[in-house]
Design a protein that fits this description.
Blueprint: H1 5-9, E1 16-18, H2 20-23, H3 25-34, E2 41-45, E3 54-60, E4 63-69, E5 75-79, E6 94-96, E7 101-102, E8 109-110, E9 116-118, E10 144-148, E11 151-155, H4 163-167, H5 171-179, E12 186-197, H6 201-208, H7 214-217, H8 219-232, H9 237-243, H10 249-253, E13 256-259, E14 265-268, H11 280-293, H12 295-303, E15 306-310, E16 315-318, E17 323-331, E18 334-344, H13 349-363, H14 370-384, E19 391-393, E20 402-404, E21 407-409, H15 417-431, H16 436-443
Antiparallel strand pairs: 1-19, 2-11, 3-4, 3-6, 4-5, 7-8, 8-9, 10-11, 12-18, 13-14, 13-21, 14-15, 16-17, 17-18, 20-21
The chain binds fe (ii) ion.
Pfam family, one: Ring_hydroxyl_A
Protein name: Aromatic ring-hydroxylating dioxygenase subunit alpha
Domain Rieske: 41-154
Length: 449
């Protein structure tokens, strides 16, 4: 046991954290047990497994799992392991298992809920303790699986908060994302981008609400956007969204940063009812929502001016442009980012095209903006590996965070409240002792939808 609870707690101060949190593989291993072994983690969206037998593999912390649609419509999340020799039952990616899973090694078969179906030459197992009804001969299900409006989360702990309570104040971000559809539903569409970053997973979360970096880190991209706009005599959307990072500090200071338990939070601008009609795509969107919900509600939905949301441990939904950047820790210095884009079902096609444009220009591996951040995350990783200092600062507006009925709120949009809140949650997870997640995972039973 490399760290006691006291030693772990000492790595997080109210205004700073120790660099070991980003560089020590032993810390990373503990995070996989104590955070990813316990918390609700986003697995994928139900629309990624639309038909019976459809599966989608992913990583939940350090575990290979798959999400599968069973014949009764339920979505299950299983560890991707055959109980015979331990082989991964399906290769990484997506596909359709048909009516059952069949391990490619010795053809053991499993129902779509993971339960044991059969083995070839069964007589060879007679008289042994092989028992098809014994769960240890099935593909193990994750202990808890729940879907919130199509977003499937799983927990490796058998007990804990319900998903809605875990999400708390950021549930409203998922609601707003779905409410932008006239039928209240979204689906993953247009493919998924994947980017492997050479940095620790926590740096990405910190950056999501780091308003002080925008006009510095992204200077090259917003300056190029401004030059281009000058040259062509207009500022189309693809340049406008790059230009935004160049707003003066006074702009960022006015944003509101909300922080909730479990490390979650979001960044919000002033409610903007005018957003509903500001351009032809928004107008058509507004009309489709007005027909479904009435004008006032449509204005509320499109007026919610929320930028990045943090669901700590899972990633960042973006409501206005319908993205989910899923953050998958791989190693202490490797993080896989999976960028999902959503179509609002029933909304005009222009809304989806705009979401794709945002994904390409801002978030994709070949965008003009994301590489700015990735370069800095890597510099943080490499700088924190030196003996140049032990502490990482989160001092900005420390001591001023306001507590209200359901969480905390910044006094200034440049506050480092979100980072402090994330590490408050980190400390709570990490101090709580080892073993709970692993013990709960061993019980293994869960399904949803
Ligand atoms: Fe950035």
């Amino acid at each position: 046991m490399p760290y006691t609870d006291e030693q772990l707690a000492a790595l997080v101060r109210g205004d700073s954290v120790h660099r070991d949190l980003y560089t020590d593989p032993a810390i990373f291993d503990l995070e996989m047990q104590r955070i990813y072994g316990r918390a609700w983690i986003y697995v994928g969206h139900e629309s990624q497994v639309p038909k019976t037998g459809d599966y989608h593999t992913t990583r939940l912390g350090d575990q290979d799992v798959l999400m599968v649609r069973a014949a009764d419509g339920r979505v299950h999340v299983l560890y991707n392991r055959c109980p015979h020799k331990g082989a991964k039952v399906v290769a990484d990616g997506e596909g359709c298992a048909g009516k059952f899973f069949r391990c490619p090694y010795h053809a053991w078969t499993f129902k779509l809920d993971g339960s044991h179906l059969g083995v070839p030459l069964k007589q060879g197992l007679e008289g042994t303790s092989y028992d098809p009804a014994d769960p240890s001969f099935s593909m193990r299900r994750l202990p808890r699986v729940e879907s919130y409006r199509g977003f499937v989360f799983a927990s490796q702990a058998a007990e804990g908060q319900a998903l809605v309570d875990f999400l708390g104040g950021v549930r409203s971000s998922i609601d707003n994302l779905c409410d932008r559809s006239p039928v209240g539903e979204v689906e993953v569409a247009g493919g998924v981008f994947r980017v492997m970053q050479r940095s620790n997973w926590k740096v990405f979360y910190e950056n999501l609400h780091d308003t002080m970096h925008a006009r510095v880190t992204h200077e090259s991209s917003y300056a190029a956007a401004r030059d281009e706009a000058k040259e062509i005599g207009e500022m189309p959307l693809e340049l406008h969204i790059m230009d935004g990072n160049g707003e003066p500090y006074e702009f960022w200071e006015k944003l509101e940063l909300r922080a909730y338990d479990n490390g979650h939070g979001y960044m919000e601008g002033i409610f903007n009812p005018g957003a509903a009609e500001r351009d032809p795509v928004s107008r058509a969107h507004f009309e489709s929502l007005t027909a479904a919900y009435g004008e006032q509600r449509a204005r509320e939905i499109l007026g919610m001016n929320r930028h990045n949301t943090v669901i700590y441990g899972s990633g960042s939904p973006h409501t206005v442009f319908q993205q989910f950047r899923v953050i998958r820790p791989v190693a202490v210095d490797r993080t896989l980012i999976e960028i999902q884009t959503f179509r609002c079902k029933g909304a005009p096609e222009g809304v989806f095209k705009r979401a794709m444009l945002y994904a390409n220009v801002i978030n994709s591996p070949s965008s003009n903006v994301m590489p700015d951040d990735i370069e800095l995350y890597n510099r943080c990783q490499e700088g924190n590996a030196t003996r140049g200092g032990d502490w990482v600062s989160m001092h900005r507006y420390h001591g001023t965070d306001r507590v209200d009925a359901d969480g905390m709120v910044s006094v200034n949009g440049t506050s480092e409240l979100p980072m402090r809140n994330q590490f408050r949650a980190w400390k709570a997870y990490m101090e709580a002792g080892a073993g709970n997640g692993a013990a709960a995972a061993a019980k293994g039973d869960g399904a949803c939808c």
